[in-house]
Amino acid sequence: MERPINNNHVNSSVDADFSELMDFSYDMAKKLLPFLARRRIPLTPENYHLFYDYFLGSNPELTRQLNEALQKESLFTPAVSNRIYKTFYEIDSEHVKVLTQMGEQIETISTSLEENLGQSLDSTGRFQHFLNDSVSQIEHGQLRAEEMKRLVDSLLSETKNALDSQSALADLMEASNKVIVALTEELKDKTRQANIDDLTQLYNRRFMKQRFGELIHEFSVGGFKSLSMAIFDLDRFKTINDTWGHSVGDKVLVITSKIIKSFAGDYHVACRYGGEEFVILFVGLEETEVESLTESIRKKLEETQITIRGENIPVTISAGISYYVPGEDEIAFITRADKALYEAKAAGRNQVKVARE
After folding, report:
1. Domain residue ranges of the chain, discontinuous segments joined by +
2. Which of 53, 57, 84, 169 has the fewest CB neighbours in a 10 Å radius?
């Protein structure tokens, strides 16, 4: 008799949560739809998604880019919408594959659980009905000795069936949970892979752009005291490729990335920015610490022996540093570091230059 009470409690809880969600969605729609109409923004799924999160305020960098687009663009065209949407929501084919697989398996699991739960409830109901009839017969003294024996045998049989049904449901739920956990871990792994450069195992440029927006927001609300950037570029890397081949060039990139990662650690963001360029976003360090770490990376690579077929290959790197100025965007921040890198190259390479205000 406990089952109906629990089901009603669960259903009322779900209904309450659903009602609350519907009220919230309706309130958001009342704000969002007039907003889009006033600005002549087409009501597409992408635009609704963008501006739903805009009103939700869950992504400061998205909010900033949308505000900038609304100020600069006379019309919020599909091209503008697609550009911003791809920046924040585009999912690669591997993610789509895993998400589709997850959806299909969860649907299968849900169907199996529903069927087994129904069977389990039917079994429990039959067992309860059998017990009630048996108790009634015993209470009214309607059973002879042989009938009592048959009743006890039936009771044992029905008890076993009920227990088997409950055990099967428990086994299915345990197996289903393992499948969902495995799929979730696979999705996390695909997400990690999407953010990692295959060759160097550093973060890729896409992840750096995403993390940059998050760090800007954290810095603006006082999460840490400073944000700095160092851009590195291997000196005469084309000559290495032309002379020794791309496999040797790849080896140099891997060695360089390991050195950069060893100094950046897990706290600072080290990425392969493109080709032979690398970037570190330093979080919360004093200027002297940033310059010391950057110089240490330059010196460590210069001192590293890279030997191919018995011959040492001299490898050096140049770097430019910039310190984040509150209010500036990513482009200005990177441009100043890139300018300092150019100065290091022009001054003879294998050195570090700092962008000053």
Report:
1. 2-89, 93-194, 205-354
2. 57
Separation CA 99–CA 291 (nearest Å)? 43
Q: How many CB atoms lie within 10 A of CB 126?
A: 14
CA 164, chain centre distance (Å): 41
**Which two three-digit tokens encode residue 60?**
């400061």
**Per the structure block, which two tokens stand in for 38?**
């006033």
User: What is the dotted CATH code of the domain comprising 205-354?
Assistant: 3.30.70.270
pTM: 0.54
Helix (H, G, I), strand (E, B) or coil at 253: helix
C-alpha to C-alpha distance for 125 and 118, rounded to whole angstroms = 10
Q: Are 317 and 257 in contact (CB under 8 A)?
A: no
Q: Round to whole Å and give the CA distance between 352 and 340.
A: 8
CA distances from 30 to 33, 51, 66, 310, 323 (A): 6, 12, 19, 72, 43
Task: Report the run of H or E that residue 281 belongs to, with start and end.
Answer: strand 277-283
Does residue 87 contact residue 80 with C-beta atoms inside 8 Å? Answer: no
pLDDT tens digits, the chain, 357 residues: what are they? 333 334 444 344 445 555 665 666 667 777 777 888 888 888 777 777 788 888 877 677 788 888 888 888 677 888 888 888 777 765 555 555 655 565 565 556 555 555 555 555 455 555 555 555 655 555 555 545 555 556 555 655 666 565 566 566 556 556 655 655 565 566 566 666 778 888 999 999 888 888 888 888 888 888 889 999 999 999 999 999 999 999 999 999 999 999 999 999 989 999 999 899 999 999 999 999 999 999 999 999 999 999 888 889 999 999 999 999 988 888 899 999 999 999 999 999 999 999 976
Instruction: Supply φ then ψ for residue 314, to 5 degrees.
Output: -70, 125
Active-site residue 311, yes or no? no
Whole-number Å distance between alpha carbons of 300 and 33 = 57
Cβ-based burial of 15 (10 A; exposed 0-12, middle 13-18, buried ≥19): exposed
